[in-house]
Amino acid sequence: MSYKDDNLRAIKDEVLALSASPLYQYRVDNKYFPVIGEGNHDASIMFIGEAPGENEAKTGKPFCGRAGKILDMLLESVGIKRKDVYVTNIVKDRPPGNRDPSPEEIDIYAPFLDRQIEIIKPKVVATLGRFSMIYVMNRYGLELEVGPISVLHGQTFDAETDNSQFKYISLYHPAAAIYNQHLLDTLKEDFKVLKNLA
């Protein structure tokens, strides 16, 4: 087992036991799994969504429902294999009714995301949706650049952690494209930018 595998497994164990989370009891009552993340531990691209949906909570796998199929299609459109990237969410447990994550939920799960970024050391961090965008930009020195996702999508910025640097890009959440063909076209264009970063 590598250092990365060991450290990512430690995160999984801690989230499994996170009874202090306001979402813990809902997970237990519904026999859901926490959704820690999936993919290549040496990935050059890391995708960060918002919170798991029902399909994700039932399987423990991120982006395995309709939004995941769109993500797979977008990756394929620029010749990136899903197995080569790492996919996670800022919140690791499903909020009831697929509602947006609360500030309290983001606060309790965000340190796990910070550790995942430190362990994997991606060259590119791509957020999917507004909540992960706002968190990552504020956390990694881009707070002065924060604005609406409708303005920021597809733009790249330089960001840094305590011990590494990465290119940052915000993207619309693939779920938004389920009902809006225009957003799907926008996502396809933004993924071309992503391909050039990796």
Write up what this structure looks like.
This protein has one domain (3-197): Uracil-DNA glycosylase-like domain (Uracil-DNA Glycosylase, subunit E, 3-Layer(aba) Sandwich). It has a six-stranded mixed sheet, with helices on both faces. It starts with a helix and ends with a helix. It has helices at 3-16, 24-29, 54-59, 66-77, 103-120, 130-139, 149-152, 181-197, and strands at residues 38-39, 45-49, 86-89, 124-128, 156-160, 165-171. The chain has 198 residues and is of the alpha/beta class.
Descriptors for this entry?
about 200 residues; 6-stranded mixed beta sheet; 8 helices; 6 strands
Question: CATH H level: which superfamily?
Answer: Uracil-DNA glycosylase-like domain
Low-confidence stretches: none
Give the overall form.
Answer: globular
Largest sheet, spatial ordering of strands:
1-3-2-4-6-5
Pairing-aware structural class of the strands and helices? alpha/beta
Q: Based on DSSP secondary structure assignment, what is the total number of beta strands?
A: 6
Total domains: 1
Strand content: 5-15%
Put simply, the count of helices is: 8
* Named CATH architecture: 3-Layer(aba) Sandwich
Name the CATH class: Alpha Beta
Mean pLDDT: 95
- Helical content (DSSP H or I, runs of 4+): 40-55%
Q: Spell the H/E element sequence.
A: HHEEHHEHEHHEEH
